[in-house]
Amino acid sequence: MKEWTRDERYRVLQSPDEIKDLYDRIQKSVYRQAYHVQPITGLSSDPNGFALHEGKWHLCYQWCPWGAVHGLKYWYHVTSPDLLHWQNEGIGLAPDRDYDNKGAHSGSAISVGDKLYFFYTGNHRDENWVRTPWTCAAFLDENGKLQKLDAPLFGPRDDHSEHQRDPKIVWNAEKQKYYIFIGAQTLDLRGCVLIYESEQPLTGWRFAGELKVPGYEKFGGMWECPYIVRIGGKDVLIVSPQYTKLPGRGESTNHNVYFLGHMDYDTLTFTPDGPYQYLDYGFDFYAAQGAANVADPEKAILIAWIGLPDNHYPTEEEDWEGSMSLPRELRVKDGRLVQTPIAGVEALRDQALPADGTLPKAGELEIRVPDGDFDLALYCKEDGTGGLRLHYDAQARVCTVDRRGMDKRFNPQVFEVLDVPMDAPLTSLRIFIDRSSTEIFFNGGEKTFTTHSYPTEGERFCRVSEGAELKLWSYKTSVTDEFVV
Ligand code: FRU
Fold first, then answer.
1. pTM
2. How far is CA 66 from its chain centroid?
3. Residue 141, class by beta-carbon neighbours within 10 Å (0-12 exposed, 13-18 middle, 19+ buried)?
4. Are 33 and 127 in the same domain?
5. Integer CA distances (angstroms), 56 to 47, 174, 218, in order
6. Which residues participate in catalysis according to the annotation?
7. Residue 225 CA: which ligand 1 atom is closest?
8. pLDDT computed for residue 232 by the predictor
9. Same domain, 38 and 102
């Protein structure tokens, strides 16, 4: 593993030429994704600024150009007509102001009339490396480029720690106000959310108070990347709590959870209907964010970083890592969140393949699971050994996913085996495989499991238990992956 000095990690990109060779080299990787958004070079992490504006989807990702390392963060901008085909647009936000000198950190967007506004954290550090997080804004200009405001909207509060970031903007029609939710940490190191309000998106911001989530006053040390949305009359609060271990999540100290409940803007209280739930049960899923301006009140559209902070992935040696998940649709049914792959994803199907146990490099599997215990080996060897293995124990109603059999193992100290407790007996699986990721939807979206996966040349096969029905398609390439900086 390469050791990076601070200067190397925080080097400012002066010209695209500086990363052209890196880009050319990375293009040759066998792990470049075919239909998932991925970093043009270096590292991608959180999704940012996700919104539908004038018929086009805008998305940015946290980007560190130089390699698979968390350093100076940019927003890299991509657009899509349909959430399936993605085009590189170049740098969205560069850390080029004093107030964001050490990174344009995560945030959100909102389309208002013919304007698209972006909200992000300007990560300022002084010469002693003391951090001041500023809440900053930008807008999309007529050339499709993000333009920053001259000054930040507001600074941090001194009654909370330096961890105050990741503004999520929402419009509340009832109150006729905008609200910004900020992921934060109290002075005694508890995770929380701070709320600001204004009648205008770019001016007049006032601190409204700390969000109360009864029962969750002590839940992790920092709530990164808050996201709130109303779906089918229910409020859904999603946060990424860190600095804590949670049951069933191995040694990981980074999680992505959701609460279903009710948000009261008068008292700034989110009252959960029940306990928190894991948004995804996989090894690599974090900082999920929903798109703004999804007009349908019955659904939200969510995308996440396939990856975790502080973890290391095999493509690190090729100087890149990270990927966005497939966008997914969220609905609330019978008091539960149901997640399904983005509508129309079937348009990416290229060929229906014989279910002879050979996997395409990028594609989809649909499996009808027979009653009783069930086994699936993905990316196994031709003799059926190894691979990413899923076992369903019908009596316990638990699926166990085990990646220890893969040739390329990673983050074994965090977890390599995880359980997915099912609410109902397992009847179906829909699995999306790309060159370095796997996303599993159980029972039509009752649970999901997302992981990086790096199969080697011999790991091209799959096996399912007898009685299962398997359908298989290869997928077209739908990310352009062009060198646009
Ligand atoms: C989450 C996060 C955010 C922050 C960003 C910096 O992964 O730590 O809280 O804004 O990454 O890249």
1. 0.98
2. 21
3. exposed
4. yes
5. 16, 27, 40
6. 46
7. 9
8. 95
9. yes
Same domain, 274 and 335: yes
**Is the residue at 1 inside a domain?**
no
Residues 153-162 pLDDT 10s: 999 999 999 9
Q: What pLDDT was estimated at residue 1?
A: 77
* Closest C-alpha to ligand 1, atom 9: 224
Tell me, what CATH number does 458's domain have?
Answer: 2.60.120.560
d(CA 221, CA 253): 10
User: What pLDDT is stored for residue 363 in this prediction?
Assistant: 98
Tell me the CA–centroid distance for residue 106 and ligand 1, in Å: 6
- For residue 28, report the distance from its CA to the centre of ligand 1, in Å: 29
Q: 400: helix, coil or strand?
A: strand
- CA 46 / ligand 1 centre spacing (Å): 7
- What CATH number is attached to the domain comprising 318? 2.115.10.20
For 314-341, what is the mean pLDDT? 97
Q: Which ligand 1 atom lies nearest to the CA of residue 305?
A: 7
Percent of the chain with pLDDT over 90: 99
Select from 224, 242, 256, 305 the residue to mutate for testing ligand 1; criterion: most ligand atoms less than 8 Å from CB: 224
* Domain termination residue (choose one: 341, 359, 386): 341
Do residues 326 and 452 both lie within one domain?
Answer: no
Residue 28 has pLDDT above 80, yes or no: yes
When pLDDT is cut at 50, 70 and 90, the band that residue 167 belongs to is very high
| Gap between the Cα atoms of 251 and 2, Å rounded | 23
Ligand 1: residues within 6 Å at CB? 45-46, 62, 73, 105-106, 121, 165-166, 183, 224-225, 287, 309
Provide the CA 390 distance to its chain's centre, in angstroms: 23
Q: What is the pLDDT of residue 356?
A: 86
Task: Report the separation in Å between the CA atom of 244 and the middle of ligand 1, taken as the mean of its atom positions.
Answer: 16
Alpha carbon separation from 366 to 177, 433, 440 (Å, rounded): 44, 11, 10
**Among the atoms of ligand 1, which is closest to the Cα of residue 70?**
12
In a domain, 482, yes or no: no
